[in-house]
Amino acid sequence: MTSRAGAHVRITDALSLAALNDGDALSFTRLQNMLDLTLGNLITHLREVEDAGYLTSEKTWDGAGSTTTGTLTTRGRAAPDAYTEALRNLLGGLAW
User: Fold this and answer.
1) CATH number of the domain residue 15 falls in
2) How many domains does the chain have?
3) I want to staple 28 with a disulfide (CB 3.0 to 4.6 A). Which of 20, 37, 68, 69 is the partner?
4) Which of the two residues, 91 and 10, has the higher pLDDT score?
5) What distance in Å separates the CA atoms of residue 88 and residue 41, rounded to the nearest whole number?
6) What are the Cα distances from residue 80, in Å, to 19, 64, 66, 72, 75?
């Protein structure tokens, strides 16, 4: 995967989680299915998002197995707006 594609996946991860209500969590399995990624790719991208301070994750056990969920931080909720603003600034000076 190229770095540009990788950046797109990380942005998609953040936008998918940003659609949740504040404080709601999404299971990694559900997110994996929504984004059509392998588990390894998803974990790699979400680790980067978590390392950037945009996501917190929690693993819970129910006796039959584990579930890992992700929740956006305040910083993670602000990231899509900051990204959009940066794109507008970048594109604002271009002549069409």
Assistant:
1) 1.10.10.10
2) 1
3) 68
4) 91
5) 29
6) 11, 36, 30, 11, 10
Tens digits of residue pLDDT in 33-75: 888 888 898 888 888 889 989 889 999 998 889 999 988 888 8
Structure tokens at 29: 């399995």
* Domain span holding position 49: 3-92
Distance CA(24)–CA(57), nearest Å, equals: 12
pTM: 0.66
- Mean pLDDT for the stretch of residues 76-89: 84
Give the max Cα distance, the chain. 60
The token pair at 72 is 């956006």
